[in-house]
Design brief:
Radius of gyration: 13 Å
Largest sheet: 4 strands, antiparallel
Distance between the termini: 15 Å
Low-confidence stretches: none
Shape: elongated
Number of domains: 1
Helix content: under 10%
Order of helices and strands: EEEEEEE
Structural class: mainly beta
Mean pLDDT: 98
């Protein structure tokens, strides 16, 4: 859980096991909105050992402030996932 009034300033996604799907699945990550941490990303970008930047990239314009304690939400779109494992690292400060 990310605490209330936290300011998420940057992050990274690491793909531990390639994301697979029978279709053209996408994965998005969010705290306050469905895509404020990672915009919908096609499975083709979520290959083994891939590293992706999150939306917050260390600037005030991209930081995400939580209004309540929140868990990270994963949204799968377009098609179901059949395999995959990702690790998400978020850097935040509590205000």
């Amino acid at each position: 859980m990310i605490p209330a009034n936290a300011l998420v300033v940057r992050g990274m996604v690491h793909v531990d096991t390639a994301v697979l799907s029978g279709g053209s699945a996408t994965v998005a990550l969010g705290l306050e909105t469905a895509t404020d941490i990672l915009a919908a990303t096609a499975k083709a970008s979520l290959t083994l050992a891939a590293k992706l930047d999150t939306v917050p990239v260390g600037t005030a314009a991209t930081a995400v402030k939580t209004t309540a304690a929140r868990g990270l939400t994963v949204t799968v779109g377009t098609a179901a996932l059949t395999a995959g494992k990702i690790t998400v690292f978020l850097e935040y400060y509590t205000l």
